[in-house]
Amino acid sequence: MKAKVYVTIKENVLDPQGTAVQGALHTMGFAEVGSVRIGKYLELELDTNDKAEAEARVKAMCEKLLANVVVEDYRVELEG
Amino acid sequence: MKFAVLVFPGSNCDIDCYKAVEDTVGQKVDFVWHTATDLSGYDAILVPGGFSYGDYLRCGAIARFAPVMNEVIKAAEQGKFVLGICNGFQILTEAGLLPGVLRRNENLKFRCHSALLEVVNNNTAFTNQYNEGEIIDIPIAHGEGNYYCDDETLAKLQSNNQIVFRYKAGANPNGSIDDIAGISNERGNVVGMMPHPERAIDEILGSADGKRMFTSILNAWREQHGAAVNG
Fold first, then answer.
1. CB B192 within 8 A of CB B5
2. Is B34 an active-site residue?
3. Hey, which of A65, B45, B82, B176 has its CA 20 to 30 A from B216?
4. A68 contacts in B (CB within 8 Å)?
5. Domains recognised in chain A with CATH numbers
6. Phi, psi of B99 (to 5 degrees)
7. Which residue(s) pair with B135 in the sheet?
8. What is the Cα–Cα distance from B125 to B25, expressed in whole angstroms?
9. Considering B71, B118, B144, B198, which one is annotated as catalytic?
10. In the predicted model, is pLDDT for residue B151 greater than 50?
11. Per-residue pLDDT tens digits for A4-49
């Protein structure tokens, strides 16, 4: 089973990298770009077929290591 | 008194910390590898700067799970002195020993220069040789020193007098909330700071203002232990 984990900066927390990329896009003429948020994408291969167990274990991984929940949110998608 | 300087793969201020202890207070000091499982012989633990584990995932996120960190948490619970500098500060926040988080500098630049700090709380084991409100000159060198915590945590830090250092008004180099440069835990025995006192222990280095952090620690230890002046 494969888990896809998306880690993003919380909406109420400033994302300086995203703001810099937004500025660059505007300079290039992509005026339609509103806010830009930069996050992380992780793919985990899991040695299990139990979806409920996988979900609980990946959630624990996110809380403990993959995201810093003080400033980051995470979202998990399971496949296979 | 005995100091430990932790060494993670990617630490790069460990030798500076070691030499600073030798040169400022002349106490015993050891390098302690990240795999160590016993810190019981040490009175103060220094978590040095650098790029532990290449800053992979987040600064300090992986170092926080090194075996030695369980011992650092134990030492902190026992009331021993723990000082995290720069990456050490990031590790202590990831480990939950200090609240909040260090984010990317607001201007996205790696800032490496001397910085003026205000000593906000001189009633700690790390700052008792300074005057309250004193302005000191300690260099910074970081890309992710932008301290952040939620409003509730900030109010707690303020009311418990846990803000130890602030960047001088108008000279905040990284966008950190309330100009915070260093904080302590509630008990006051764990401090984290982005500036590098170990790089400011002699005028030849540009400033000797960091020296008193080390003499403060020794002073606090002697007061706790009623030790002789030569202890």
1. no
2. no
3. B176
4. 58, 61, 94, 101
5. 2-79 (3.30.1280.10)
6. -75, 165
7. B118
8. 14
9. B198
10. yes
11. 999 999 998 988 889 999 999 999 999 999 999 999 999 999 999 9
Q: How far is A54 from B195, CA to CA, in rounded Å?
A: 42
Q: What is the DSSP string of A24-79?
A: HHHHTT-TT------EEEEEEE-S---HHHHHHHHHHHIIIII--TTTEEEEEEEE
Q: Nearest C-alpha of chain A: how many angstroms from B172?
A: 16
Q: Is the ipTM of this complex over 0.95?
A: no
Instruction: Report the distance separating Cα B65 and Cα A9, nearest Å.
Output: 22
- Asked whether the beta carbons of residue A16 and residue B61 sit closer than 8 angstroms, the reply is no
Catalytic status, residue B22: no
Burial, B175: exposed, middle or buried (Cβ in 10 Å; 0-12, 13-18, 19+)?
middle
Check whether domain B2-227 has CATH 3.40.50.880, yes or no: yes
A17 — contact with chain B (CB < 8 Å)?
yes
Contact list in B for residue A17 (CB cut-off 8 A) is: 104, 108
Q: In the predicted model, what is the mean pLDDT of residues A63-72? A: 95
Q: How far apart are CA B160 and CA B94, in angstroms?
A: 21
B198 is catalytic: yes
Distance from C-alpha of B68 to C-alpha of B187, rounded to nearest angstrom: 21
